[in-house]
Amino acid sequence: MLMRLRGRHGDAGPDNASVIVALGGDGFMLQTLHKFLGNGVPIYGMNFGSVGFLMNELHEADLPERLAAATPATVHPLLMKAQTVQGTSEALAFNEVSLLRETRQAAKLRIMLDGKIRLNELICDGILVSTPAGSTAYNLSAHGPILPIDSALLAMTPLSAFRPRRWRGALLPHQAQIRFDILEPEKRPVSATADANEVRDVIRVDIAEDRTKIMTMLFDAGHSLDERILAEQFLY
């Protein structure tokens, strides 16, 4: 398929392209967003993988016309700063940052927002902080809310919360400064993952939206990311 598209439309290369066409699934789209972050070129995805929520339908013939009529959607990544005994690691996430227990022991977490303790102790398998673009991915599978792409919100969703048992998460303003302190980290080790970047044995994780970084994705007219997110809420 790649060779056929190149034969039909040519290939300017990433350094000279006005649009980068990503051919794959949602995972490949995330890789492409990370790879070309900061170059200012929009990304147009065509689904050639198993999952394609962030992709457009695969057609060869009318690609230039589709690109000209495409609707843009801008996204900002989350910046994760994960503290371990060895030091601090940073990574970006366009979908979500997830904290997960590493052993049979449930994780114990303290949740702080903008320097204020909001939940002194959460016992759970883990927790997610999702962007609007990522709210239909892992977050939705964990029964988190679907967020419109322009909602200026983040979704915080627990995974198998044991105590408090009835806590189902929170909707946060996009500018919130989030901190998770891992309680009893030696007995109950926790990993933190930003998209595909995992850090093991964390003791504290800080998360905030990085407004200095922006990526633009393109979607076919009538099939914008806003429309897809809205339609997803009426599936059964």
Structure characterization notes:
By secondary structure, the chain is α+β, with helices and mostly antiparallel strands. The protein folds into 2 domains: 2-75 and 214-232, Probable inorganic polyphosphate/atp-NAD kinase, domain 1 (Rossmann fold), CATH 3.40.50.10330; 78-209, Tumour Suppressor Smad4 (Sandwich), CATH 2.60.200.30. Helix content is 16%, strand content 39%. The chain has 5 helices and 16 strands. The strands form 3 sheets. It has a 6-stranded antiparallel β-sheet, with no helix packed on it. Strands 11-10-9-6-13-14 form a 6-stranded antiparallel β-sheet, with no helix packed on it. Strand 1, helix 2 and strand 2 (43-47) form a beta-alpha-beta unit. It is elongated. The model has no long low-confidence stretch (mean pLDDT 90).
Write the layout of secondary structure elements.
Blueprint: H1 2-9, E1 20-24, H2 26-35, E2 43-47, H3 63-69, E3 71-75, E4 78-84, E5 88-93, E6 96-101, E7 107-113, E8 116-124, E9 126-130, H4 138-141, E10 153-159, E11 170-173, E12 178-183, E13 190-194, E14 197-199, E15 202-209, E16 215-219, H5 225-232
Parallel strand pairs: 1-2, 2-16
Antiparallel strand pairs: 3-16, 4-5, 4-15, 6-9, 6-13, 7-8, 7-12, 9-10, 10-11, 12-15, 13-14
